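Notes continue from the previous slide.

Worked example: a multi-chain complex. Inputs as given:
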Amino acid sequence: MNIGIVGYQGDVSEHVELLEKLDRQYKREINVVLVKSVKSLSTVSGLIIPGGESTTMYRLIKEFGLFDAIRQRGLEGMPIMGTCAGLIIISNDDPNERVRSLGLLNVQVRRNAYGRQAESFFEEIDIDGIGKFNAVFIRAPQIEKWNNVTVLAKYDGMPVMVKDGNIIGLTFHPELTEDPRIHEMFLDNIRRGRDVSTGDIDWPLYDYV
Ligand code: GLN
């Protein structure tokens, strides 16, 4: 199974490492593809848009023709997970912002909502279907408005992990921990090839000790 990571900028290698760990330990038959062109996008069954700098990432995916192509694949049902800057890219446009977003997830986010880099923090959150998870927030955005999305986790009363069918968005960085459960959940969505918003999926399929 080919899993793509938008590969221009940001914490790409951390996502690669976590996917490769899952591949080695749990025999998930994953082939990681760094997506930098429409051609490479066409080979993948699911896509991760990593954290980084959303203004830069937006310019690059636009420049290389991926903006419309990712949007199209997302609308067709391909699973997409956006983490932090990646969430900003898949969200709805905030008219005050410099980043144009794909509008795949019906949330509006405020960039850098918790302050500068130095205000980054760790927090234990509780994720529906997963349980306690150590979340790393780095110059994180905040989901300020949301509509018709399933909220999977909150911090300080605000959603930090949401999904809508094939699209999942997180304001934090699961790739910066050793804990692969969120990536595992994402892979299960792809493998089962169906809408996770219908519920009744008994993930995670494995116990992590
Ligand atoms: N503040 C960054 C942005 O707006 C996101 C930070 C991150 O991905 N860690 O793009």
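Summary box: The domain at 2-192 is CATH 3.40.50.880 (Rossmann fold). The mean pLDDT is 89.
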